[in-house]
Amino acid sequence: MKEFQVVGIGNALVDILSHVEEEFLHTNGVEKGVMTLIETERAAELYDRMGPATEVSGGSGANTIAGIAALGGRTAYVGKVKDDQLGAIFTHDIRALGATYDTPRLARDAEHETGRCMVLVTPDGERSMSTYLGASEFLSPDDIDTGMMANTEWLYLEGYRFDGPDSHEAFARAIAACRAGGGHVAITLSDPFCVERHREAFRKLIREDIDLLFANEHEILSLYQTDRLETALEAARADCRTVACTVGPRGAILLRGEDTLEVPTEAKSVVDATGAGDLFAAGFLHGVVHGRDLATCGRMGCIAAGEVIGHIGARPEADLAELFHNAGL
Amino acid sequence: MKEFQVVGIGNALVDILSHVEEEFLHTNGVEKGVMTLIETERAAELYDRMGPATEVSGGSGANTIAGIAALGGRTAYVGKVKDDQLGAIFTHDIRALGATYDTPRLARDAEHETGRCMVLVTPDGERSMSTYLGASEFLSPDDIDTGMMANTEWLYLEGYRFDGPDSHEAFARAIAACRAGGGHVAITLSDPFCVERHREAFRKLIREDIDLLFANEHEILSLYQTDRLETALEAARADCRTVACTVGPRGAILLRGEDTLEVPTEAKSVVDATGAGDLFAAGFLHGVVHGRDLATCGRMGCIAAGEVIGHIGARPEADLAELFHNAGL
């Protein structure tokens, strides 16, 4: 038995959550429903204009690992914070769930602080994110523990982390070690604009090294530069063994070899859409590592996503294992 | 017209909120339902054992000022943080509501960090608090802007802030300036153990300088060392012009001169009792500065308290002015 079922790599961020009216987005030039990278100065300016906020640990891949840990999975996370107060909060929250997290921190006197994501939640439950990457951008190949990578069943890569000078190399190192140990590799495309920035690198990676691709419809359309979902899905099917594409309120479309399955959403209401894709991946991977069939993996993904969008914050509050049990899974 | 309606002085803290089972309190020696002061080492130990948490600005007096600011009041807060990330969060959140907050911060290289309060919420909605005072303990007379104190209708003192070497003197300075400017002074007793620690100082202060006393029944019983609420209330009536004593699910008892009024609670359900007393004071003071009668002040207090215990966190989420309006106030 391998020590880990899933090891995730991503941007280690603390979310700063605040409710705003639609108007606030327009006035402050925040694009709705997507993630925008911002610099220190813009981060300070936007924060000054925001209302009172709540801080919770976030980071897309970290939310997924938190979900897997909450389900009792053997899991670890790799992502960079600074030795500062937000870094301590991030570290506490993921370890408290039982995940292993030992990535070396930037030193206390480093210039860049722990990264943060300002999440503006509009009354429709949609979230618009402005991310200051800070320390998370400095993940380097030296941060990859190849022994850990060789000892995991699945490696889960967050597409967002492609936004960094040394991270492609870090990903390559992690993938090589995981493969050498007989493990599998999954990736999430994270965001359509992230796909824009790294389309060729993503395509090459998916063709050569990815066993399981997570995406939403906007991301997969951008990846294959088409406006027809069917075209994009068929292209993905040719590139990758398993594809799990979330399609918002319609649930998810799953592809494996020649099989195609649709799984309906399990969401009851949308309070805050933050973390929907992250928790879909957590539920799906939980099914995968327990050898469940594709349809069950998809339902687990949809139940976990449905839980997290029913409240503020991107990490589960209810007992996901109990929700799976109640659904007969 | 004075520049401020209410200026509050208290411990500037960030709350670290986590749900726990009753069992956790016993295992970790946390006394239920009260506030315990803890040192750095105990804070680190307890945090290590806690589950994932949410961070929100807190501090009893600051919650009251936040409530008054949210109601559109002209208000300011005085309390000490460090120039660190939690200090920035505290500062942002109270300013974002429109309150003035300019207390000098401890320097970045100071030993003590911004204070924090670990709030453990049990399934019954009760909160048990472990407070590391940090920077907030270092509020000194030099931090009191006497011009501000002379220019407020009401000065609101948090009893908790009596736990500090220089703060009695800071309170005295603030009271003298407020009185000299023709203002009035209110205090909240904060906590029965806080009353134990400072009983004589509180009694003297109340007799000599306090126009409006906020307390709950445990605190007022401790203040007058009796187990009969009626005895304690009559003693308070003799000491102070107006007394507002919250009595948990029964609401509040209000005394002014020979008058006694009972106001029923407006709470629908208790999700998290944190901030109930703080928001009662906010609603009550809002009534006072708008010249409303005693019964209306009490109802405003109960409505504001009822809102804040209906969700996690000690600052209001709903529009309190709208709730007052809907109640015909």
Structure described in brief:
Chain A is an alpha/beta fold. Chain A has 12 helices and 14 strands.
Ordered list of secondary-structure elements with their pairings:
2 copies of one chain form a homodimer.
Chain A: E1 4-9, E2 13-19, H1 22-27, E3 35-37, H2 40-49, E4 54-57, H3 60-70, E5 75-78, H4 85-96, E6 100-101, E7 115-121, E8 127-132, H5 146-150, E9 152-158, H6 167-180, E10 184-188, H7 192-209, E11 212-216, H8 217-223, H9 229-239, E12 242-246, E13 252-256, E14 259-263, H10 276-289, H11 294-308, H12 320-326
Parallel strand pairs in A: 1-5, 1-9, 2-7, 3-8, 5-6, 9-10, 10-11, 11-12
Antiparallel strand pairs in A: 2-4, 7-8, 12-13, 13-14
Helix pairs in contact in A: 3-10, 7-8, 8-9, 10-11
Describe the structure.
The structure is a homodimer of 329-residue chains. The first copy, chain A, has helices at residues 22-27, 40-49, 60-70, 85-96, 146-150, 167-180, 192-209, 217-223, 229-239, 276-289, 294-308, 320-326; strands spanning 4-9, 13-19, 35-37, 54-57, 75-78, 100-101, 115-121, 127-132, 152-158, 184-188, 212-216, 242-246, 252-256, 259-263. Chain A is an alpha/beta fold and 329 residues long. The first copy, chain A, has a nine-stranded mixed sheet with strand order 6-5-1-9-10-11-12-13-14, sandwiched between helices. Chain A has a five-stranded mixed sheet with strand order 3-8-7-2-4. In chain A, strand 5 (75-78), helix 4 and strand 6 form a beta-alpha-beta unit. The model of chain A has no long low-confidence stretch (mean pLDDT 94). Chain A binds chain B through residues 47-48, 50-57, 66, 84-86, 89, 92-94, 96-97, 113-114, 313, 315, and chain B through 47-48, 50-57, 66, 84-86, 89, 92-94, 96-97, 113-114, 313, 315.
